[in-house]
Amino acid sequence: MTATPLTDVAQRLLANVDAEHGDYGDAILNVPVARYRDEDRFQQELEQVFRRSPLLVALSCDIPSAGDYTTLAIAERPIIVVRGEDGMARTFLNVCRHRGAPVADGCFGHTRRFTCPYHFWVYDTRGALVGNTDRQAFEGLDVTGLVELPTAERCGAVFAVLTPGLTFDVDEWLGDMASSLAYLQLEKLHRHDVETVIDSGNWKATADGYVDGYHLGFLHRDTIGTKSITNRNTYDLYGPHVRLGFANKPLPTMRDLPVDEWQLNLGMSLVHYVFPNVSISGQPTTGLMVSRILPGATASTSIVTQYQYFREPLVTEEMMAEAERKRATYEAVTRDEDFSTVMKITAALPSIADDHFRFGRNERGNQNIHRWIDSLVDGTAPSA
After folding, report:
1. Per-residue confidence (pLDDT) for residue 332, from 0 to 100
2. What φ, ψ does residue 103 adopt, rounded to 5°?
3. pTM of the entire structure?
4. How far is the C-alpha of 21 from the C-alpha of 16, rounded, in Å?
5. Per-residue pLDDT for 167 more than 70?
6. Would you say 173 and 239 are in contact if contact means Cβ atoms under 8 Å apart?
7. Are 243 and 369 in contact (CB under 8 A)?
8. CA-to-CA distance for 249 and 266, rounded, in angstroms?
9. Is 372 helix (H, G, I), strand (E, B) or coil?
10. What DSSP element (H or E) covers 220?
11. How far apart are CA 267 and CA 322, in angstroms?
12. Which tens digits make up the pLDDT trace of 169-184?
């Protein structure tokens, strides 16, 4: 079933406010603490969840024109996502085929050619090797270009699998999440070119916060939680992905208006969590914050990168100042409240190594992502 309109989400939120609880699942889910801290398990997650599952690696608006590219590293895989002159988005390992040096740097850029700084081997935007110094010395060379990764573009986003040679069906992977992402019109956004990078603890404990509406009025009671009616969330589960609705305090005041006159940007907040590691916070009429969780070198560490996106180009000093204000606000909240808490949780894991975490019926987003992580690691179908 395709995603319901956002007016439907708002009506469900209002019903949850009246019922004094959010959407409930069928049962509590217990997740062993060992699954957060075991290093062998963590390596399995890197391989099965991050290297063999489709990942959202860029928004289409990040690389709107031929030659536009972005670079990042996920699960020990440095990659380039680039728009070719034929209009196609492609993903390559950011690794020169000569001696392994990166051929591109900087979070975002534009080029006609990628040139390795080590020995000046040159690749075009389709990844083809188009020049190398001292060619005579490499007669019989067995490579023709960069290592290409499976890539597909849908709904204003670029998806890739970090293992060469694998195939994936992006429509099957997204399922009905595609229709929900389509509401956001991601391709029409404009990025504020300031990256926020924040340290956090275990990647799953970090992800838990992004799909948890339960904590908003408690952990964030003096900041972003002041506008929320806590723990009245809606959860739409699309395979491994989650659309999470939040009721805001103005919502009940709209009760007597026709639904099509509700100011959704005031009455509700919205998060799309694209499994396994990307949160998109915002609505079609608002700016968005895109957060990407990147697992660290061990199970105990991760980093989160954040970018603010807006519906209009940032062309004035006032617009830039407002963008920076929003960026700094969310940096402070996530660093000082969310991720500092995650780090404390991560540090406490050895003391409760034989225990488990308890996800309530009101924490359906958490339950969903843990079931999917387990299914990918174990090679089984996710349980209901």
Report:
1. 96
2. -100, -5
3. 0.97
4. 5
5. yes
6. yes
7. no
8. 8
9. helix
10. none
11. 22
12. 999 999 999 999 999 9
Distance CA 148, CA 316 (A): 39
CA 337/CA 223 separation, integer angstroms: 10
Find where tokens 């026709």 sit: 258
Can you tell me the distance from the alpha carbon of 236 to that of 245, in angstroms, rounded to the nearest whole number?
8
Structure tokens at 77: 């895989």
Q: Are 103 and 116 in contact (CB under 8 A)?
A: yes
Give residue for tokens 């940096």.
Answer: 331
pLDDT in tens, 13-51: 999 999 999 999 999 999 999 999 999 999 999 999 999
Contact 357, 202 (CB under 8 A): no
CA pair distance 345, 300, nearest whole angstrom:
10
**Which residue, 113, 117, 119, is CA-closest to 135?**
119
Q: Do residues 295 and 42 lie in contact, with contact meaning Cβ atoms separated by under 8 Å?
A: yes
Whether the Cβ atoms of residue 116 and residue 23 lie closer than 8 Å to each other: no
Sign for the pseudo-dihedral over CA of 313, 316, 322, 327? positive
Total Cβ atoms within 10 A of residue 222? 8
Query: In sequence order, what are the residues at sequence separation of 6 or more whose Cβ sits closer than 8 angstroms to the Cβ of residue 43?
Result: none
Residue written as token pair 């948890």: 212
What are the structure tokens assigned to 225, written together? Answer: 């939680």
Radius of gyration of the chain, Cα coordinates, nearest whole angstrom: 22
Nearest Cα residue to 227 out of 268, 284, 173, 189: 268
Q: Are 285 and 264 spatial neighbours (Cβ–Cβ below 8 Å)?
A: yes
State the Cα–Cα distance between residues 384 and 380, nearest whole angstrom: 12
- In DSSP notation, 25-93 reads -SS-EEEETHHHH-HHHHHHHIIIIISSS-EEEEEGGGS-STTEEEEEEETTEEEEEEE-TTS-EEEEE
Question: What CA dihedral angle connects 310, 292, 173 and 300, to 10 degrees?
Answer: -170
Nearest-CA neighbor of 352 among 30, 42, 27? 30
Residue type (1 letter), 35: R
Q: How far apart (Å, rounded) are the C-alpha atoms in residues 50 and 92?
A: 16
Report how far residue 44's alpha carbon sits from residue 52's, in angstroms, rounded to the nearest whole number: 11
H or E segment and range at residue 151: strand 151-154
Angstrom distances, CA of residue 205 to CA of 49, 71, 340: 15, 25, 11
Give the side-chain half-sphere CA count within 13 A for 256: 1
Q: Which of 67, 96, 97 is nearest to 82 (CA)?
A: 67
Amino acid at 68: D
